[in-house]
Amino acid sequence: MKLVCCAAVVLMFACSSAAPPAPAPVPAPVPASPVKETSAAALVDHSGDSTETAVAVPKDAPNEGIDWVNNWIYDHYGRFRRKSWGLAQQQGRHYKVVTFELPDHSEHTAYFDITELWEAWTPPPAPPAPPTPPTPPPGY
Questions:
Q1: Each residue of 49-106: pLDDT tens digit?
Q2: Is residue 33 a part of any domain in this protein?
């Protein structure tokens, strides 16, 4: 019994005097990539500001795209009054240029690319010719 007791005491000292396990190495922190700051002006939607950013009107837009253009302006600017519009062509593309006024009396111009609509357009069929009146019999 004395031997068992001595062995237990030796075992306790052996376990308690062992060095603790080394902690796992901590990986070096990865430097964060610098956050690219974006100015508020860069976040502004420039769709329709020029022919380069012209808004494409779908070729199947009803009413020759007029309703589609009006809805686009209303969705992006709110209430508006159309002041003028015109057609333009640049580098083989066709554009509708619309100038409109907002309730605060500011004027804006929007460019719409109508090339697909332009190329899909077909003229309406010619109306039927009126019937010719009957010719009177000879000697009448």
A1: 898 999 999 989 888 899 999 999 999 999 999 999 999 999 999 999 999 999 999 9
A2: no
Q: Which structure tokens are listed for 120?
A: 């899909």
Helix (H, G, I), strand (E, B) or coil at 103: coil
Is the pTM above the cut of 0.85?
Answer: no
> What's phi and psi for 6, nearest 5 deg?
-65, -40
Asked if residue 30 is part of any domain, the answer here is no
Fill in the DSSP letter of residue 19.
Answer: P
Residue-wise DSSP of 83-130: EEEEEEEETTEEEEEEEEE-TTS-EEEEEEE-HHHHHH--PPPPPPPP
List the Cα angle 74/109/43 in 5-degree steps: 75
Q: Which domain holds residue 64?
A: 47-120
